[in-house]
Amino acid sequence: MTLACPTPRHEVEVVLIGHGAGGRLTAELLETLVLPALGGQSGPLEDAALLPGHPDLVVSTDSFVVSPLFFPGGDIGSLAVHGTINDLAMRGAWPLALSVALIVEEGLPLAELRSVIQSLGKAAHAADVPVITGDTKVVGRGAVDKIFINTTGIGRRRGALRLSAALARPGDAVLLSGPIGLHGTTVLSTREGLGFESDIASDSQPLHRLVRALAPLGEHVHTLRDPTRGGLAAALNEIARDSSVAVEIDESCVPVPEAVASACDLLGLDPLIVANEGCMVAFVAPSAADEALATMRSLPEGRNAVRIGEVLTDGPRGRVTLRTLVGARRVVDMPLGEQLPRIC
Prior knowledge:
alpha+beta
């Protein structure tokens, strides 16, 4: 395995792998190049957007380039479905339909393509969301790596959930629906032959039913985010920035499976920056925190839910801190570049 500096220096500006990591380089690319060209963006960049003129309709799109295509706990097909459903769910939306676009490399064995599509269809059926349209393109050998998938999802918000990364409030409890680091370390271990995949599997799963269970709490649930690229560190920093609050989490409360911790120790990674595909972080009013936690634990997707921290009533706005096992505090920064490429 080759580990490279996430921000190599170039005489001419070029796109770096870190620009797709979901961290500071991604934000820089969006703010300086993408958004200005598209007319700008008001408000926070959410996992999914409200359709103009139709405030109850939510749209999200995502592309999946994970390598390898198949890994313990999932594959690129099921991952494409789960990832898009979860982005809709983080805005409180129930998925109504998906589109699927395939970019396939010439020479890909039809057996592999069949397995990916069958898995995608099975995941969509299990989530009760139809695939209603799509597209297929085949490109020459080497133009893509086997297969890339783009999915777009449309959802509808029902009930009183009105969620945004900008709505976290001082005093909020920070809840996490399950352990972190499983997806990223599983994919990396499978790709590089590290052997950890025999002990762990990706957490890839849809979270819309878990979010629907929280709907009766309505306005007490302020913010949801699934910590995918950039992991929990990126998700918390985005929320702290967009809500202009200080967030503190307790290291002793953050669930990191032993195999994930071992893999991260070996590779020099922080579990907080490793991608997840089946857990979410929730910012909930303190008066509803216990009920929200009990609700999450009542469903299989949230059976290991825990409270990991809170939004401070004072402190530097936009900052995330970690209370360590020895009682010290350290700043949790937004990840800079891509330490684990091709994870989703």
